[in-house]
Amino acid sequence: MLTEKQVKEVVGEITDPFLNKKLSETDAIKEITIKAEKQHISLKIAVAKTGTSEQLSLQGTIVEELKKAGVQSVGLRFVEFTPEELQQYRAEQPNTGNLLTSPNAPEFIAIASGKGGVGKSTVSVNLAVSLARLGKKVGLIDADIYGFSVPDMMGITQRPVVEGEKIIPVDRFGVKVISMGFFVEDNSPVIWRGPMLGKMLTSFFTEVEWGELDYLLLDLPPGTGDVALDVHSMLPACKEVIITTPHPTAAFVAARAGAMALKTDHEVIGVVENMAYFESQLTGEKEYVFGKGGGPKLAEELQTELLGQLPLSQPDWNEEDFAPSIYDESHRLGKIYGEIASKIAFICENEKAATGK
Ligand SMILES: Nc1ncnc2c1ncn2[C@@H]1O[C@H](COP(=O)(O)OP(=O)(O)OP(=O)(O)O)[C@@H](O)[C@H]1O
Ligand SMILES: [Mg+2]
Fold first, then answer.
1. 102 pLDDT tier (thresholds 50, 70, 90)
2. Pfam families given for it (predicted)?
3. 123 and 266 housed in the same domain
4. Residue 97 included in any domain
5. Nearest CA to 142 among 183, 103, 104?
6. Which residue has its alpha carbon closest to ligand 1 atom 9?
7. pTM over 0.85
8. Pocket-forming residues, ligand 1, beta carbon under 6 Å
9. What's the CA-to-centroid distance between 123 and ligand 1, angstroms?
C-alpha cells in the first residue's frame, strides 16, 4: 500500500486543467485518507470550479495514476479553491509560449541613446521602478549584453531561479529583472559574438517566465550597434524613449538613434534630457554645466514630446538595502521620474484605447 508521501508524489505530479499547474504547486491536495486494510485511498482535491468537465477529466487522471501505482480503489471529493488561492495561482500562471508573439504581449519600451554614458541605464531602472510604483506590472531586460549594469545599479544580489525549462526573473522593487550579468561568473567580460548575441536576446524573451506584464522595458547598449539593431528587428511593435544630455552635439548623435527607430517603424514616444543642469542646494540656482537646449531640440527634430529634464544628483544611499542608482520616491529626481512614468503610461494607455489593442 502507498504511504501518504507516495500518494502526494503521484497525485502532485498531475496537472490541474484549470490552472495549468501541478497539483503539488497549487497545494490542491487538501486531505488524504488511507485505509490499508481495504486498499482504499480517499482524497479531497481543490479545483477552480467543481462540477465541470475539467474536474471530470482531472478525476479520471487521478484515479488512473493511483491505480497504476497499485491502489485498488480511490474515492475523490472536490472542493473549490478560495478566491484568494485562485488569484494567487492564476497570477502566477505561466505566460505560455513566446512573449514576442503572445496576443497579450506587454508594451515594449526600449531606452536608447546615440552615445554611451548619457544615463540610459539609470533612466531605465528608475523608470521601471516608477512604473511599478504606479501599480503597473513591469519587467526590465538589461539588453546591454556586454556592458550590463542593471543588477549593480538596482543592488541585486540574488540570481534567477531556473524552474523546468524557464528562467524566473529576479524581483526587485516590484520589477522583474533579467540581465546577462546574472549568467556570468565573477564579473568576467562577455566575449560572445555575432549570432550568440541575438540568441541571448531571444532567450530573454522566450525562456524567461515573465508572467503577466503591462510594460517590458529594455535598457539598450549605447549607439546603433548590432544589439540595438537586433532589438529593432525582433520587436515589431516597440516604443522608444531617447535619452540625451543637454549638449547640442549629444542631441545630434541621439538623433541618429531616433532615426534608426523610425526606420524600423518603432515609435519614439519621447525624449528625456538627463544631466540637464546642476541645481545648488544652497541657493537653488541652476547651472547648465553640460550646455542647454539639447533635449527640446531633439524632441522637436524627432517630432516628439520632451518627457522630462533630470538634473544632476545622486540617489540617497541606504546601507541596509543598497541600490545605488535608484532614487527614492520622495527624492527630487524620484518625483521627476514619477512624472515621466505617468506621462509614458498615459501615452501608452491612450494609444491602446484609441486603437482598441
Ligand atoms: N542625473 C544624473 N545625475 C548624476 N549622475 C548621473 C545622472 N544620470 C546618470 N548618472 C551617472 O552617470 C553615469 C552613466 O550613467 P548610465 O550608466 O546610466 O549611462 P548609460 O547611458 O547607460 O551608459 P552606457 O552607455 O555605458 O550603457 C553613471 O555613473 C550614473 O550614475
Ligand atoms: Mg547602460
1. low
2. ParA
3. yes
4. no
5. 183
6. 119
7. no
8. 113, 116-122, 144, 147, 149, 222, 274-275, 310, 312-314, 325
9. 8
